[in-house]
Amino acid sequence: MYKSIKDIKNLKDKKVLLKLDLNLSLDKNGRIDQDSTLRIESVLKTIKFLLSKKTKIVIISYLGRPNGFDKKYKMDAVSKILSKYIGKKIKKLDSALPQDIEKDILKMKSGDIIMLENIRFYSEEEKNDKLFAKKLAKLFNIYVNDSFSNAHRAHMSCSAIMQYLPSYAGFRLEEEIKNLSLAMKKEAGKILILGGAKVDTKLMLIKKLNNSCDYILLGGVLANTFLALRQINIGKSIYDNKFLKLAKKIDSKKIILPIDAITAKKIYSTKIEIKDIKNISDDDMILDIGPKSVELFAKYIKKSKMILWNGPMGYFENKKFQKGTMDLVYCMKKYKSIVYTGGGETVTMIKKLKLEKVFKFISTGGGAMLEFLSGLELPAIKALNKNKMSAKGGSASGGKKSKLH
Ligand code: 3PG
Fold it and tell me: Apex CA 210: angle with CA 208 and CA 213, to 5°?
C-alpha cells in the first residue's frame, strides 16, 4: 500500500520533487486552451499543503509528446498559469538535467517553487532510465506523485525515480484512486458510455466491465468498429479493423449502437446529413450520432443508477459534430445521473459548457482512467506501493551536495 503525503513527518525545509501532469490542451495556434485547466486546479491542494509546511518544491512535468527539444512544448506558459493560480512566483528553469539544475536547487529557500523544463525533451524519461533517476534523486529528500493522468506510463519521473526516494501520493492521486475504485463496484443499473478513439484500451474496458454493467452505449470510432462487425455499411467512416476479432469476442446484446448518424462526405465538409444507420452510402463518413440515437441512449441514461463515461460520440473537434455528445450530457443533467467521467478532451468540453456540476467525479485521466477501470495496476501506483523508503532516515542523500557527473 502506498504512503500518503499526509503521512510525511518533518517536512520543513525538505526538498520535494513533485511530479505533476500539467499536460494541458493546446489550441490550433499552439496556445494553452484556457478550458483545459482542470489538471492545474486538481493539484493546488497538494502544492498549498507543501507550501504551508515550508518545503522547497521542484515541479517535474511535461507537455505534449515532443520528440526531443521542441519550442512549442516548453513549460514556460504552463508555469505562468500555475503561478497565477497559486499567487506565487515560480522560477522556471530551461533544463531538467540534474547537472544543470543542481545549483538552482541548492540556492532554494523554504517556500520557493521551481518548475523544470519539459521532462519529455529527454529520451531518458520514456526509457524509464535508472541512471538519470538516480542522479536526479540525489538532489531531493522526498518525492510526491500527484499525477494520476500519467500514472499508466512507466516513465522515469513516475516509475524509476521511486527506487531512489521516499515516495508519497499527493491528494489528487488519492482522490482519483478512491473515486475510481467506487466507480468499479458492481452495482445494478450501471451503464458504460464510450466514444472517441483508443479502440484497444476501450475494448479491454468493455471486456472487464461486461459483467458489472447492464448496458454499454457506444459512439465514435468504437461504435463504427462494432457496426462494421455487425455487417452494417459504414461507408468511409473510420473504424479499427485490427480489433475486429477482439470486438467479435465481446459483442453481446448489452452493446447498444447508434441507430442513426450525422454524416458528411469529408471531415470538414459544410454539408451534413442525418441518415438512418442502415442507409449509409459508400462515400459517407459517420461523424456523430443522430437524434434518434440520442433518444434511444436517453432511455438507458434515464433508468441507469450509475454511468461511467469516456469519449465523445463523434468528431468533436468540428463544432458541427458536437451535438450528439452535448445532448447526452444535457440528458445526464436532466435525469440527475451519477456520472463518473474523464479524459482530456471530454473534460475540456465539459468546462467549456460549464457543466462540471453534472458529474459526480471528473477524472483528470484519459488512458490512465480507462486502464485503472480495466483493473490494471498502473506503473506509477505500483512503484508507490512498492516504495518502502522512509522520509526521515531514507537512503536518499537529498540536501547534501552531491557529485553528479
Ligand atoms: C493524457 O493527456 O492523457 C496524459 O497526460 C498522458 O499523456 P500521453 O498519452 O501523451 O502519455
Answer: 115
Residue 49 in grid coordinates: 499543503
Packing angle, helices 220-229 and 199-209, rounded to 10:
70
State the Cα–Cα distance between residues 103 and 402, nearest whole angstrom.
11
3-class state of residue 367 by DSSP: helix
Closest ligand 1 atom to the C-alpha of 153? 11
Q: Would you say 364 and 149 are in contact if contact means Cβ atoms under 8 Å apart?
A: yes
pLDDT at 395: 39
Look at ligand 1, atom 7, and give the residue with the nearest C-alpha.
150
Q: What is the pLDDT of residues 106-116, one digit of tens each?
A: 999 999 999 99
Compute CA distances 179 → 175, 340, 369, 372, 373, whole Å. Answer: 6, 8, 11, 11, 11
Q: Tens of pLDDT along 197-222?
A: 889 999 999 999 988 899 999 999 99
> Closest Cα to atom 10, ligand 1: which residue?
65
Ligand 1 pocket, CB under 6 A: 21, 23, 65, 149-150, 153, 344, 366-367
User: Domains of the chain, with CATH numbers?
Assistant: 5-175+378-386 (3.40.50.1260), 185-358 (3.40.50.1260)
234 Cα: distance to centroid of ligand 1 (angstroms): 30
Each residue of 336-361: pLDDT tens digit? 999 999 987 788 788 888 899 999 99
251 Cα–ligand 1 center, Å: 28
